[in-house]
Amino acid sequence: MDFNAQPIGIYIRIVAIISLLLGLNDAARLLGVGLGDASPIATMGMSGFVYLAIFALARLFAAVGLWIKASWGAVLLVGSTAAELALYLLGNPDVRMTAFAFAVRLVLLAAITIIFVLSIRLERARATD
Q1: Residue 58 maps to a domain
Q2: What b-and-e string marks burial along 58-92, b requiring 16 or more CB atoms within 10 Å of the CB?
Q3: Residues 67-94: what's their mean pLDDT?
Q4: What is the pTM (predicted TM-score) of this model?
Q5: Out of 14, 52, 63, 92, which could bridge 20 as a Cys pair, Cβ 3.0 to 4.6 Å?
């Protein structure tokens, strides 16, 4: 995939910023920001804490990968977001999110899918020229 094309490049950077903000939000939840004296591990449980840590790290690494326009960033973002949404939709009690967070993750998944489609279309258009 060629993510260096100008129209896709700007779109990828916007998705990278959204991914970075989500990852930082998850990292803040891991550190217990807004919980007061309560421990994040006690609040979420050990497995919920581990899930959140994995998804936060994956989202942060994906943001870096997208910012440098590497295809592994998009793959990592799709994989981690799809896994998190699947766990949430299957009713895993350790993966919790608000309706807004769910909507943002759906938009992020749709955005990265659009990037893949646009990239494939641009490659096909270049191949026919």
Answers
A1: yes
A2: bbbbbbebbbebbeebbebbbebbeebbeebeeee
A3: 92
A4: 0.85
A5: 63
